[in-house]
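Onboarding guide, step 5: your first structure request.
Type a short instruction followed by the sequence, for example:

Predict the 3D structure of this protein.
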Amino acid sequence: MTEIGKRIRIDRVVNRSTRRTVIIPMDHGITVGPVKGLYDMKSIVDQVAEGGANAVLLHKGIIRAGYRGYGKDIGLIMHLSGSTTLGPDPNAKVQVADVIEAIKLGADAISIHINVGSETEQGQLKFLGKTAKLCEDWGMPLLAMMYPRGKKIENEYDADVVKHAARIGAELGADLVKTNYTGNEDTFREVVKGCPVPVIMAGGPKTNTDEEFCQMVYDSIRAGGAGVAAGRNVFQHENPTKMIQVLCGIVHEGLNVKAALTKYMK
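The system replies with structure tokens like these:
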């Protein structure tokens, strides 16, 4: 019966009609600290929920502190991986929580960050494989953040290494894969074709303009992508709620960039 539970939970983080999603990762507090936009967590989650995002992605301590604020309900993904930019190897992601904790805290899904090509890749892959088994046992959806990062990786946005990383996530049991956008529609289509589970575009660093970011999201959807997981381009925006509405317009309504910005931002 666990497959029923997994389907119910996936519907909390993925739109049932479009089968796409807009996820706002806000797990940056461990990696880089309380950056701009992530001081008042209740407020930013409320703004994100008001905009219509499918889910937020948080660490367990923020969830325990009452992440939902006083606004609308929103899907919850609990992150199980962590590392800091202050450590000797920021790519060395380690386990900081588990599936049972996520269930107790009411999460709708869990996520794991894997840096393919890092010096600790072996342990990270082992953690992913074991967690995928636990997710299957408990009916918990698994989002694998698959990034090509390490000494052998010359360009982490190159389609060959991105599609390899994405495929690893699917091979080891992820229900959804998040990975780097490769820079254009044609190369990202290769990533999607090579991955048998839905591929979500990572938002990446904050872009110079809304148009630049939205064009990447639009092109990823045209390539067959299953949505976007955007952090800084949303929570550091001057109006996160409107930015979410624009993204939902592109991802769920099928609007092009100009139409989405005109409808929701102007």
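Each response can be followed by summary notes, for example: The two ends are 47 Å apart (CA to CA).
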